[in-house]
Design a protein that fits this description.
Helix content: 55-70%
Strand content: 5-15%
Number of strands: 4
Distance between the termini: 76 Å
Structural class: mainly alpha
Number of helices: 4
Shape: elongated
Strand order of the largest sheet: 1-3
Largest sheet: 2 strands, antiparallel
Length: 194
């Protein structure tokens, strides 16, 4: 009798465990489906937002260029601000799209060589006007021994990291300077690694 009761208890526990396992599997499927829908939504929305935003950027650039010379300096500055803000918004949309790609496992990494001088040019070209607008000194210094060297990385991802870093530095610096220095590593995971 005792053995029969123990068998019934074990069978009951096994059924409960099986039911709990099935419930967990269903929840996992629901979460995966929800995540998939969210990623698809973000990708679609990012794509749908880009087209009108690109049109806005083109028109703002045309106004800022003021080729007909019919805008006063203040209006040109307004057009430049619209273009700059639109560019920032486009970068944010691109970041959202990248996030959805990462979550869906579709992020491609394109590794190649990029010259440190090109990194310097990109950062200077992208942020010089922001620094000038805030009255800040701005410099991207590349160590002389790296000036003609290359780094092997995904150029787009590197630019994204530097853009976020410098954007925040300029955003939160009220006076003085923002300087990025690129030099050979002196410490870290491997001192001998170039």
């Amino acid at each position: 009798l005792l053995l029969a009761e123990q068998n019934m208890e074990v069978e009951t526990k096994n059924r409960e465990i099986e039911q709990a396992k099935q419930a967990l599997e269903e929840k996992a499927e629901q979460l995966a489906l929800t995540s998939k829908y969210k990623s698809e939504f973000l990708a679609n929305m990012s794509h749908e937002l880009r087209t009108p935003l690109n049109n806005l950027l083109i028109l703002a650039r045309v106004l800022a260029d003021n080729s007909d010379r019919n805008l006063n300096p203040k209006q040109v500055k307004f057009a430049e601000t619209i273009h700059s803000s639109g560019t920032d918004l486009l970068a944010l949309i691109n970041d959202i799209l990248d996030l959805s790609k990462i979550e869906s496992g579709k992020m491609d990494v394109e590794v190649g060589n990029i010259r440190f001088g090109d990194v310097q040019d990109y950062c200077t070209r992208t942020f010089r006007h922001v620094a000038d607008g805030k009255g800040l000194e701005f410099a991207i210094d590349v160590d002389a021994q790296l000036s003609n060297d290359v780094i092997r990385t995904d150029a787009k991802r590197l630019q994204q990291v530097l853009k976020n870093l410098l954007s925040n530095a300029l955003k939160f610096t009220e006076h003085g300077f923002v300087r990025l220095r690129i030099e050979p590593v002196a410490s870290g995971w491997s001192v001998a690694h170039p």
